[in-house]
Design goal:
Largest sheet: 5 strands, mixed
Protein name: Mutator-like transposase domain-containing protein
InterPro entries: Mutator_transp_dom
Radius of gyration: 28 Å
Strand order of the largest sheet: 3-2-1-4-5
Order of helices and strands: HHHEEEHHEHEHHHHHHHHHH
Number of domains: 2
Shape: elongated
Structural class: alpha/beta
Pfam family, one: Mutator
């Protein structure tokens, strides 16, 4: 039903300092909600029409979205600056000698694969977001964001008319901020810009990356050569898995017609075992790197002996996660039926070389703080909510990226409340909407806390085990079970348990 009055306004207006027509608070609020979702103005109009509601004009929606986007950028930049200030104050409260020193992580996300499929001679991506997160607290707040955009509709229209236009320096409005021929995969430049932004209150001491040396170079150009490089445990363990898959083991190591699948399962299990040994080892030694380096060669030997079937005293003495007894042994979740392997001396040396990718002395130096880039990569899911890859926002791409950061740092409810207040369309205190946002905030906090519980992590691990066990029951019908204690009972050759 449509109600109209010739004498009274049936809506509240936002007070703007600029001249011109004032927007309705409901329109501003709608854009605040839209910028937190993947829904575009066009889709929003379609939803209203489907609900038998007259939608605003396309130009009106776009103008309102442009105003909201600029405010979102400013609010989020101020919020990230406050986070940086609070980090320095917290370090000072803890009594650190230099309260500005922080450990950070960083990662980039592109709207398209940067490896071109032939449609362009340049790299395929047209939009990039680079985030930098602190690694000092459990929440790992985002402290810097850079957005790069090659897309400009005005330039495209002018080129279609035969005019020579170069972005981002042409006259008028240009939504692009990087040149068309600029290598969009240059994460070193993006990291440098993020590092320059955080240098107002912080100084980077350690940088965790997925192995991109250019990012580290960009940070050092701002914060000096004292910045130390760290590696992400997850990516390093993935390198271990890939190395095992590339190895050429002997013919007897994997038997049957599904050797490649068995090899893949073995690589997954070795990866899980090494990560568990690493985490538990640092916990046992309370982060003492020298003790870890001294004991890790024995751990590697114990791992190899365990997968050969000679588990017992070696695991009981040297392993952090396998007790060498039936009730305390390492459960091979990925290997079909938990069977052991026949290994030649060459196989053992190849496996040892692969394990050292994660548990070697140089690698232990790089992962000594057990930091990761998972927060930066997890942000990509929130960014996909506000700025999905299948929808192109030429003009308001930066605003949507900043909205995603504001939502990650403050949760959805607080983000909406902050933006509404800043835009002059505040949520009415004590209203049902305010109560719903409060309830939503409680749910978000509870869900985040639940995901960190050991019970939740075990539930996810058990789910993976169940799926691999189900797959093994279908494709590996012959049960081959691992027998404990064979090495201690005097059997020198345990290869027969793999037959």
């Amino acid at each position: 039903m449509w109600i109209q009055s010739a004498f009274h306004k049936l809506y509240e207006e936002v007070e703007f300092l600029k001249r011109g027509r004032r927007a309705a608070t409901v329109n501003i609020g709608a854009q605040v909600g839209l910028i937190h979702t993947p829904i575009s103005n066009k889709n929003f109009s379609e939803i209203l029409n489907a609900a038998n509601i007259i939608s605003p004009s396309s130009s009106g929606l776009q103008k309102c979205a442009n105003k909201v986007s600029k405010v979102v950028e400013k609010v989020n930049k101020d919020d990230m600056e406050n986070i940086r200030k609070n980090l320095a104050n917290d370090n000072k409260t803890l009594g650190l000698s230099n309260e500005k020193l922080v450990r950070v992580e960083s990662d980039a996300r592109y709207n398209n694969p940067i490896f071109s499929n032939g449609s362009t001679p340049f790299q395929g991506g047209t939009q990039v977001t680079q985030v930098m997160c602190e690694n000092m607290t459990k929440n790992k707040k985002i402290i810097s964001l850079y957005t790069g955009n090659k897309l400009c509709l005005i330039a495209s229209k002018l080129r279609g008319k035969g005019k020579n236009v170069t972005c981002p320096n042409h006259a008028g409005l240009c939504t692009a901020n990087i040149a068309e021929d600029f290598p969009i995969g240059n994460e070193g430049e993006y990291s440098r810009r993020c590092a320059a932004e955080v240098s107002d209150h912080l100084q980077i001491s350690h940088f965790t990356s997925d192995g991109d040396s250019k990012s580290f170079t960009g940070i050092k150009s701002v914060h000096g050569n004292n910045v130390q490089s760290l590696r992400d445990v997850r990516h390093l363990s993935q390198s271990l898995k890939r190395a095992i898959m590339k190895c050429t083991f002997s013919e007897i190591m994997f038997s049957g017609s599904r050797k490649q699948n068995e090899k893949s399962r073995f690589a997954l299990d070795i990866k899980a075992r090494c990560v568990a040994e690493l985490n538990t080892g640092f916990s046992v030694h309370k982060g003492n790197l020298q003790l870890m380096k001294a004991h890790m060669p024995n751990v590697i030997d114990a791992i190899i002996m365990c997968y050969k079937g000679n588990c017992g005293s070696s695991c009981k003495v040297n392993s952090y996660v396998c007790g060498g007894e039936p009730s305390k042994c390492w459960i091979r979740s990925y290997i079909a039926n938990g069977s052991t392997l026949k290994m030649t001396f060459y196989d053992q040396e190849e496996l040892r070389r692969c394990i050292k990718i994660l548990l070697g002395p140089n690698s232990l130096e790089l992962v000594r703080f057990l930091t990761s880039t998972q927060k930066s990569e997890g942000f990509n899911r929130s960014l996909s909510r506000c700025n999905p890859k299948n929808v192109t926002f030429h003009r308001n791409f930066p605003g949507r990226a900043h909205a995603a950061v504001l939502m990650v740092n403050n949760k959805y409810s607080n983000s909406v409340i902050k933006l509404s207040v800043q835009l002059g369309a505040a949520i009415t205190p004590g209203s049902l909407v305010a109560k719903q946002l409060k309830q939503r905030h409680k749910i978000d906090i509870r869900n985040a806390q639940r995901k960190r519980l050991i019970s939740s992590k075990l539930r996810r691990a058990n789910s993976r085990r169940r799926k691999y066990k189900l797959h093994a029951s279908i494709h590996y019908p012959l049960s081959v079970y691992y027998k404990k204690g064979l090495a201690d009972s005097g059997n020198e050759d345990c290869d027969n348990i793999c037959d």
